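User: what does the whole thing look like in 3D?
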Amino acid sequence: MAKHPLQFIEVPRRDPDKQSADERVQHYGEIYGQFDNADAAQQAGRCLDCGNPYCEWKCPVHNYIPNWLKLIEEGKLFEAAELSHQTNSLPEICGRVCPQDRLCEGACTINEMGAVSIGNIEKYITDEAVKQGWRPDMSNVTDAGKRVAIVGAGPAGLGAADILAREGIRSVVYDAYPEIGGLLTFGIPPFKLEKEVVQQRREILEGMGVEFVLNTRIGEDIAFAELVDDFDAVFLGMGTYKYVSGNLPGEDLAGVFDALPYLVSNINHQLGIDKDPASLIDFAGKNVVVLGGGDTGMDCNRTAIRQGAASVTCAYRRDEENMPGSRREVANSKEEGVRFLFNRQPVEIIGDTQVTGVKVVETRLGAPGPDGRRQPEVVPGTEEILPADAVVIAFGFRPDPPDWLAEHQVESLPSGRTRVATHGDFPFQTSNPKVFAGGDMVRGSDLVVTAVFEGREAAKSISKFLGVW
Ligand code: SF4
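Assistant: Here's the predicted 3D structure for the full assembly of 469 residues, as structure tokens:
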């Protein structure tokens, strides 16, 4: 039957079912269901094919969104999966964790009437295609006779490995953790991304010829010099793991935690990697204050709720409109019982040896700062103390370049970010011509999808450098 031109009005946006807040806080599993084939086709059919695919431009990997929506509408699942992988190495993961409201869906022409459910359809395509036996078509790939070492099995490293494999370049991916994924596995809680999804991606990449060497720390277990000598090129995708400090008095009190160790501790216990109860940071029965308004802050909020915290309060120094995190995650946090205090800036963490509260002041938004965002200004005389048994600091991450980078002429900027070529013949090449870098360690802490994009682009550059592209 011909598609009605106004299908987007006649068929409202519908997303897969979401569990109720009461149900989902009882477990750590994903909270959203999956489209079935008919729902996916119907929702994909809401795309107007408007001719100005702003969604594609707003998507950091520039997915061919209207094209794969059309394939899904026509029931061509495997073709959609193949097309989706032409621009994105981790589509099922981006479909789950991208802040679509700020990216593709925020730019959708019919956003006012409910944007096309792009993220959920992207997730459906790979999940369903893999379930039905689809694997990337490697039939035209021939061995280029080159080998590349990749340091870091996070989104940038996996993006690079995917492109190199498709170019016939063999890669060996090294990671210090016992599983691939970096923060996808050890930083993002399973209620947003179940670890089986990352496992499945590992199997797909291994099927494409990518080799993973895990539990292996470069600079300790293997010298970086060995990689530089033994491989034709090296890609660094080591991410950002050092947390940004608020330099607040009292940050060293017992009961104050940085976001990442808190999340990693929980995930390691859920995965059974760490079975020692003493190493679990457990907020059961505690009044928790989370400082920071990004996605990591939301992950901490929602983990604390699942642990059975007595209360979780999230304080953020700007207003809700200017929060950096995904609106979806803020909404999920609220539904699960997190209390938000906007326009509150922490100035001190209070306690003797153990934290008892956080002193905050009210703020109002002033003129834009150098980053273009309106800067919070303190409103005098507005101090208050938020009682707390535990405090989580979630102000973000920054790169922490190991010494062996400089020893091999890989320069870092004063911010710790790795310096790479931004134009010329070989973008993403570091000051050591044989070494390339991309993702958060180059651009600073950013989205999963931007790291995937940089890993892919760096791999294209490596491929050119090796005379393969
Ligand atoms: Fe949207 Fe992210 Fe998928 Fe791009 S990768 S289409 S931004 S969900």
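In plain terms: The chain has three domains: 7-131, 147-240+398-465, 245-395. The mean pLDDT is 95.
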